[in-house]
Design goal:
Blueprint lengths: L46 H13 L12 E5 L2 E4 L4 E4 L2 H4 L8 H13 L11 H13 L6 E6 L2 H16 L3 E5 L8 H6 L17 E4 L13 H15 L5 E6 L15 H11 L3 E5 L23 E4 L10 E6 H4 L15 H16 L2 H22 L3 E7 L2 E6 L9 H13 L2 E2 L1 E3 L5 E4 L7 H19 L1
Parallel strand pairs: 3-13, 5-6, 5-7, 7-8, 8-9
Antiparallel strand pairs: 1-2, 2-3, 4-10, 9-10, 11-12, 12-15, 14-15
Helix pairs in contact: 3-10, 4-10, 7-8, 11-13, 12-13
The structure holds pyridoxal-5'-phosphate.
Length: 473
């Protein structure tokens, strides 16, 4: 039978094909029970994954893609166990979501208790403490020591949309400034805010209006290089001449860009934009959906340059895998929306709140911000060594447990997405879950759980090194 990550008992309800049982799975999975070791018992994908893939193809819309043809059965720590019993090292964390690791006991316990108590009332009907406690934690933990308020949502995109709604209401202005290479989601407004056409936007328009895209600081490819102040002046000049500061409600930016290629703007770029926003009554919104919650060696990536955003958008790493997102910021801005103006049926679901409270407690009690920093040092040292061996690595960038290499034809800036794809494929076939990204599809990114053991990380990086050797040859 198929067992799920944190269920204490096997499913009693309707069962999927019982023949697809992972060998040896007991249904009593917890992090400690999943050996923290890469173990391959079949070719990847194995026979059970192949059988599920056939069902998937017949049942799931083809617009929903999967990176790997391997089906998960359970997971613990830094390992995902597939339905054939293979143990894969997870360097993706489900896109920066299981930052604290899979099946963290405190999260499992918090979720089990909450779902037994109640799973839903709708906060806008009868509220509950968990929602309030998550807002208190966010108000305490996000940058800035002014009075704050938070509101909870389900997905990153939904939270980004709400940040824009709140900023518009607070300023009485319309325009949203975003940047080249940005990724903010897949809803109509956030598609307009996202830069990359394929696969996120192509054929899905018309898009929301009043979104202005400004030039980003992208040190590897930008003629202004590492001059962050000059890059900010260029963006500001475009905004002022093409929109006008008085029409701008908010400027939304990822402190380290995610899907766009882990682009870390040049030092000084973000602080200069923040000062311009402050001087022009523009709401500065940090989209920390991917970079937040102990991902980059700080709790929030904004902290690396001492940024204090007016609003911070969080999601992904906030709740250890349960769907939850938030907008947090200055009370004067957050309270601008009228009663009933923001919300939703499921927003701030109590089970997701329980998971978030346990994830936040785990980050604080287990020192996971420092753990992310340490992983970052280990990863950086390895990637710089790899770059010395492979001239295809044009750039090593990012911070903490959010780093990437950008691949080009040696000595040029011509992107090499083919190489990124071959390296990824080799890793996938050898039991390491890795992700690519980037406007040009040529960035290989690393998002391990910050709790991954050194042995596991080193084993995964050894596979990566072999992958480069094999893909370049
Ligand atoms: C993933 C992501 C989003 C969208 O989050 P969803 O939960 O997928 O809607 C928004 N912004 C950034 C920076 C992201 O990485």
């Amino acid at each position: 039978m198929i067992t799920k990550g944190f269920r204490a008992e096997p499913y009693a309800g309707a069962m999927p094909e019982p023949t697809l049982s992972p060998s040896g799975a007991t249904g009593e999975s917890a992090a400690a029970e999943v050996p923290q070791k890469r173990i391959l018992v079949t070719d990847l994908p194995g026979p059970r994954s192949r059988a599920l893939a056939a069902r998937r193809d017949a049942a799931v819309a083809s617009g929903v893609s999967s990176l790997m043809p391997v089906f998960a059965a359970r997971a613990g720590g830094g390992i995902v166990v597939d339905v054939d019993g293979n143990h894969l090292i997870d360097l993706g964390s489900g896109i920066a979501v299981t930052t604290v690791g899979h099946a963290v006991p405190a999260i499992v316990a918090g979720v089990q208790q909450q779902i037994a108590d109640f799973s839903h009332t709708c906060f806008t009907i009868t509220p509950y403490e968990g929602y309030v406690a998550v807002c208190e934690a966010l108000n305490r933990l996000t940058p800035g020591d002014f009075e704050k308020r938070s509101a909870l949502f389900n997905s990153g995109a939904e939270a980004v949309e709400n940040a824009v709604k709140i900023a518009r209401r607070a300023t009485g202005r319309n325009t949203v400034v975003v940047f080249d290479h940005a990724y903010h989601g897949r809803t109509n407004l956030t598609m307009a805010m996202t830069a990359k056409n394929m696969p996120y936007k192509d054929g899905f328009g018309p898009f929301a209006g009043e979104v202005f895209r400004a030039p980003m600081s992208y040190p590897l490819r930008d003629p202004l290089g590492t001059d962050g102040a000059a890059a900010a002046a260029r963006a500001i000049s475009d905004i002022e001449s093409q929109v006008g500061a008085k029409r701008v409600a908010c400027l939304v930016i990822e402190p380290i860009q995610g899907e766009g290629g882990f682009i870390e703007p040049a030092p000084g770029f973000l602080p200069a934009l923040a000062s311009w926003c402050a001087a022009n009554d523009v709401v500065f919104v940090a989209d920390e959906v991917q970079s937040g919650f102990a991902r980059t060696g700080k709790l929030f990536a904004s902290e690396h340059e001492g940024l204090v955003p007016d609003l911070v958008v969080t999601a992904k790493g906030i709740a250890g895998g349960l769907p939850l997102s938030a907008v947090t910021g200055r009370a004067s801005i957050m309270d601008a929306a009228h009663a009933g103006g923001i919300g939703g049926t499921y927003t701030g679901n109590p089970v997701a709140c329980a998971a978030a409270l346990a994830a936040i407690a785990t980050i604080e009690q287990d020192g996971l911000v420092a753990a992310g920093q340490k992983i970052g040092e280990r990863l950086r040292a390895f990637l710089l060594g790899l770059q010395a061996r492979f001239p295809q690595i044009a750039d090593v960038r990012g911070r903490g447990a959010m780093q990437a290499v950008e691949l080009t034809e040696p000595g040029t800036l011509t992107p090499d997405p083919g190489l990124a794809g071959r390296v990824a494929k080799y890793c996938h076939q050898h039991g390491v879950i890795t992700l690519t990204c980037g406007t040009y599809g040529n960035v290989f990114r690393f998002l391990p759980p910050v709790t991954i053991t050194d042995e596991l990380l080193d084993d995964a990086l050894a596979v990566l090194s072999e992958a480069f050797g094999s893909a370049v040859a």
